């Protein structure tokens, strides 16, 4: 009896507390999930991170040393990169997070959404032609940002430390500054040329030069408000007002767009492959479906791959044949699942993929026209996203890829806030329903609509074996993202390369359109004899001007190994 009374009293007291917090405006996003506060024993002998720069690695190390878990570290990394990796790290963009927490998989979609005033034809002129650059530069290109809400949701559900504590490193970098390295300085210079006075970019970033200590006081103020008030500041507070004010007379985003933004917990794509459980990104990413299709079709074609050396002409041909089919599906079927029913189960079904794999011609490139193409694949996709991989000693893992699309996004910086805004609207199909060069109508699934999320290729991925995390991996690269992750997984598991070598090895890419064209990276071009032999098979070789940037952690037994791509300025660290 006494116990019942005590329970009643504490429930009433809790309700009162919740009410007063609500009226103070702090519980706007009331936790929909009870936090798992159960103490668990460590199962690994260390935590580990693989991230895009050393400042984010330092932030993660600090958080782990203060007792934080993988989610705390991931959120600290995301906010740090928004300051020190401003070309792609962000709070003005969005992304995806794949998690494995206490033995269960989760996926958080914090992708940008189209503003309420967006229309299907907003990037077309009177004659119905695409207005060049309108979805790429300036206020018109901006989708409603999701990163702050995403980090808030993830930390609220799974973090151990106080929210404020995980933002502390980012605030310090913004207020006290960080030293600019060569790669960032070069990217800033290129961006200044690209935006060429079309936006206010240089007013904020003109002084970002190699070797200088770069401070961002406006951004420090925003991050401090977010630390004190939570995501509410960004979506309904002073920061929301600054974003909405900057848009007035220029762009579509209003305060209502920000107030109505929601991150979404979705079912991740899960598949069995080679004794592992692959946990990866569902729509609105095309990446998870694409990765599973690639892995499964390659496994189904084992007889054709037998004795074929890695990255030989025949290997490049067979992989390209598989990629051709994956990209045909991508163009036809992938879009925002809140607006369009994406047949994920069918697209990753073994029987379906066996049929597709059987169409692969082992001798020559199959006719592009016969492989159901769509508009989406022909569109150049921006590649300049960034990724971070984290595991903690309790065996939890976070794989998150986030983006403002191109380097420095739309080139618009919110006055008084220092937030770089994305150009994610470019990931929609600007001109859907119009027949492509093969006369096929496609990509309606990815047409612009208010509140819709544009199709992405980001593929934050976790592999588990027997319920334990085995690999955490992701990369930037636009449509190259899932073909890159696929190749590293292949190198590592099928060819038994050490993770470091698997990440460093040559990568190539084919995506159905342009027909029979294989792209290579500047880091390791396809040239010399290899180029001649690939061309002799009927392919056109094309260089692209960017490299990927894989961040990966592999766990063997109880020991993590972390690797950052030698192509970037990433840092990987195992933290005792
Ligand atoms: N903006 C790149 C992607 O979402 O894949």
Your description of this structure?
Helix content is 36%, strand content 15%. Mean pLDDT is 90; it is low at 1-31, 373-379 and 434-442. A hairpin with a 5-residue loop joins β9 (386-391) and β10 (397-403). The strands form four sheets. Strands 6-3-2-10-9-1-18 form a seven-stranded antiparallel β-sheet, with helices on one face. The protein is globular and about 60 Å long. The relative contact order is 0.17. α3 packs antiparallel against α4 (147-158), α12 (287-300) runs parallel beside α17 and α14 packs across α19 (528-536). It is built from 19 helices and 18 strands. It has helices at residues 2-23, 54-65, 70-84, 147-158, 163-176, 182-195, 201-205, 217-229, 232-236, 238-247, 255-260, 287-300, 302-305, 313-333, 344-347, 350-358, 481-494, 499-504, 528-536, and strands at residues 47-51, 94-101, 104-110, 178-179, 213-214, 264-266, 269-273, 276-280, 386-391, 397-403, 461-465, 468-474, 508-509, 517-520, 540-543, 551-556, 559-564, 571-575. The protein has 576 residues and is an alpha+beta fold. The protein has a domain at 270-382 and 464-575: Gamma-glutamyltranspeptidase, large (L) subunit, C-terminal domain (Serum Albumin, Chain A, Domain 1), CATH 1.10.246.130. The structure holds glycine. Glycine binds at residues 382, 385, 403, 405, 427, 456-458, 478. This is Glutathione hydrolase proenzyme. Residues 358-367 have a biased composition (Basic and acidic residues). Residues 1-34 form the signal peptide.
């Amino acid at each position: 009896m006494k116990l019942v009374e005590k329970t009643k009293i504490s429930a009433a007291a809790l309700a009162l507390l919740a009410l007063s917090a609500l009226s103070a405006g702090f519980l706007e996003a009331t936790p929909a999930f009870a936090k798992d506060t159960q103490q668990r024993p460590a199962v690994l002998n260390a935590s580990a991170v693989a991230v895009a720069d050393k400042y984010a690695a330092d932030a993660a190390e600090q958080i782990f040393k203060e007792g934080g878990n993988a989610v705390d570290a991931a959120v600290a990394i995301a906010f740090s990169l928004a300051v020190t990796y401003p070309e792609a790290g962000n709070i003005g963009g969005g992304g995806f997070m794949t998690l494995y927490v206490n033995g269960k998989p989760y996926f958080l979609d914090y992708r940008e959404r189209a503003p309420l005033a967006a229309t299907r034809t907003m990037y077309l002129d009177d004659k119905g032609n695409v207005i060049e650059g309108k979805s790429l530069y300036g206020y018109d290109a901006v989708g409603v940002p999701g990163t702050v809400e995403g980090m808030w949701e993830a930390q609220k559900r799974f973090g151990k430390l106080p929210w404020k504590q995980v933002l502390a490193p980012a605030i310090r970098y913004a207020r006290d500054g960080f030293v600019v390295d060569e790669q960032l300085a070069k990217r800033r210079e290129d961006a200044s040329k690209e935006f060429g006075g079309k936006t206010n970019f240089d007013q904020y970033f003109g002084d970002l030069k190699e070797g200088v200590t770069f401070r961002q006081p406006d951004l420090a103020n925003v991050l401090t408000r977010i630390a004190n008030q939570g995501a509410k500041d960004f979506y309904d507070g002073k920061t929301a007002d600054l974003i909405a004010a900057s848009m007035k007379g220029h762009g579509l985003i209003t305060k209502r767009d920000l107030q109505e933004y929601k991150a979404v917990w979705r079912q991740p794509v899960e598949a069995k492959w080679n004794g592992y459980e692959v946990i990866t990104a569902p729509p609105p990413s095309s990446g998870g479906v694409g990765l599973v299709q690639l892995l499964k079709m390659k496994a189904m074609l084992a007889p054709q791959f037998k004795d074929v050396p890695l990255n030989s002409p025949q290997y490049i041909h067979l992989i390209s044949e598989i990629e051709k089919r994956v990209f045909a599906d991508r163009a036809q079927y992938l879009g925002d699942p809140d607006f369009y029913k994406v047949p994920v189960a069918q697209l990753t079904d073994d029987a379906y993929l066996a049929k597709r794999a059987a169409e692969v011609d082992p001798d020559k490139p199959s006719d592009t026209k016969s492989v159901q193409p769509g508009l989406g694949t022909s569109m150049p996709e921006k590649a300049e996203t960034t990724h971070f991989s984290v595991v903690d000693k309790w065996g939890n893992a976070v794989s998150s890829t986030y983006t403002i699309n191109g380097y420095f996004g739309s080139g618009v910086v919110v006055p008084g806030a220092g937030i770089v805004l994305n150009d994610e609207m470019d990931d929609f199909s600007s001109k859907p329903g119009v027949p492509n060069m093969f006369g096929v109508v496609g990509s309606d699934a990815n047409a612009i609509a208010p509140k819709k999320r544009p199709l992405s290729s980001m593929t934050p991925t976790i592999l588990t074996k027997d319920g334990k995390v085995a690999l955490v991996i992701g990369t930037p690269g636009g449509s190259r993202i899932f073909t890159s992750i696929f190749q590293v997984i292949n190198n590592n598991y099928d060819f038994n390369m050490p993770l470091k070598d698997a990440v460093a090895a040559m990568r190539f890419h084919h995506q159905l359109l342009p027909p029979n064209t294989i792209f290579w990276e500047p880091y390791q071009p396809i040239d010399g004899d290899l180029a001649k032999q690939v061309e002799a098979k009927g392919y056109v070789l094309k260089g692209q001007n960017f490299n990927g940037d894989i961040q990966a952690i592999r766990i063997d037994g109880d020991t993590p190994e972390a690797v950052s791509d030698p192509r970037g300025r990433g840092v990987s660290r195992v933290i005792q």
